[in-house]
Amino acid sequence: MSIEPLDAVSRPRGNSGLSSEDELVRQAQAGDKDAFCLLAQAYERRIYSLALHYSREREDAEDLSQEVWLKAYAALSTFRFESSFYTWLRQITINCFLNHRRAKAYRWRTQTSESASSENLELREDAGSQVRGLETTLQNHLVAEKVMQALAGVSPQQRLIFLLKHQEGMTYEEISRELGCSSGTVKKSVSRTVAKLREKLGVNEEPENYVSCAAAGVLR
Fold it and tell me: Which of these three, 66, 87, 110, is where a domain ends?
């Protein structure tokens, strides 16, 4: 499955031509399932891309994406047009990611050491397969592999913060509000992840911008 660049996401179109997003949301809130499907079509690849790079597993990414859309549909009546639809959708996405992390941590704690070792082996194999799959669609195969390895080596929280900053383009303040932590914590997390990327990419003297741009190009 190819992943579109984030700037390729466009406004949904209705049968009568270009329709504003707010109009589609209102139609969906009134029970028009086709309108909701048009909204989903506009952002499904963006949500899946974020889920894939966060979870590093295609099966988990598919489950997370489905959960996001189910929750969005169920909560659609609560959308008050105080932000863009995607900003509201991203809040749901982040909550799903955090809940997924907590559930996965709980499952890991309750497993036996033998089953955990088996699972870890499967995760490594899946991650390797995913990297190889991504490499076939990326221009810089070496950078792609190293970035994926670097992101696999940081905590889920650090990975999420990095993706929100460099894939979603959120500010430190926006991320801190979403995750309920300080801006300083967010900055420190991004800095540590960038340091890991520098190490994997072999970039020791270059500014942070170089690593960020390289990573952003791969993640998209």
Answer: 110
